[in-house]
Design goal:
Elements (H helix, E strand, L loop, with lengths): L1 E4 L25 E3 L8 H15 L2 H9 L2 E4 L3 H22 L5
């Protein structure tokens, strides 16, 4: 399960001069996901995924999520892994190009 906020785009002027992207704006999307500990048996991961996807598709949950600004997205563990890799790659490039570092 992946939860994305629906109103979360932003222009960050600190990043507009970098060469990581040619665009003058960056989409910043807040998201939440449910992860299981490393080593969790695949059948448990699949069961959790199926149950969370089922619950997220109910009208009650979708309505509540929308009321607090979330757009729930369902998918597989592989979909989430791809999303996390893509986000990590994107932000790693931007951070490196901007010369940012954690102190």
């Amino acid at each position: 399960m992946l939860l994305r906020t629906s109103v979360s785009t932003s222009t960050n002027r600190a990043l507009t001069s970098t060469t990581a992207r040619k665009s003058s704006t960056y989409e910043v999307v807040g998201w939440n996901a449910l992860f299981a500990p490393r080593g969790t048996p695949p059948e448990i991961v699949q069961r959790l995924n199926a149950e969370v996807n089922r619950i997220v598709q109910t009208a009650e949950v979708r309505t509540r999520m929308a009321s607090i600004g979330f757009d729930p997205a369902s998918g597989s563990p592989a979909d989430l892994a791809t999303f996390v890799r893509t986000e990590t790659d994107k932000w790693s490039q931007i951070i490196k190009a901007a010369g940012l570092r954690a102190d």
